[in-house]
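Justification of resources, computational component.

The compute hours requested in this renewal are based largely on the per-chain cost of generating structure records like the one below. Each record pairs the submitted sequence with a full structure-token output. That output is archived, and it is also reused by downstream analysis tasks.
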Amino acid sequence: MSRSQVASSLRSLCVSVLESDIESRNQLESAVGTIAARLSQLDAGKLQLEAQHLSQHRAALQERVASLRDELSRARADEYRDVTVSGKSWMPSDAARWVAKEKGRCSWVPSPVSLGAPLPLSESELIELYSTNQSVPIEAERYLRDEAGHEIQSQFATHRKPTFW
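The structure output for this chain reads:
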């Protein structure tokens, strides 16, 4: 390695053993002089404080690395852990195939969905929506699932109540 490849702040501490004896001796004297100058400027108390600070910083970084490794391990395990919805479990690969297969039927939620975004419905609208689980006749639900139900779905999109209610 050449001296020119070493960081400039450390270059004066480098001593070549392959160059001429005079050049090597000059480099050695320069290195000793640099070390002596640095030692005369250092304060043992400040060095001790810096060492403690760096030690604490290193420990915090080690904890962070361990935490991130744990998180990564859990994320990897989640790729194989069953997905459970309403008490029914699926392997992740089966769930992904089902979602891909049912994309057309189940893609009515507008995208993108932002994590933590407020609900687009008020509390009273949400209560009314969930109450339709009891009040909407099963025939109406079947109709909504049917191809002809697209007209009804568009009425919902414009906030008009379908006529058979």
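The first helix runs from residue 8 to 11. The beta strands are 83-85, 88-90.
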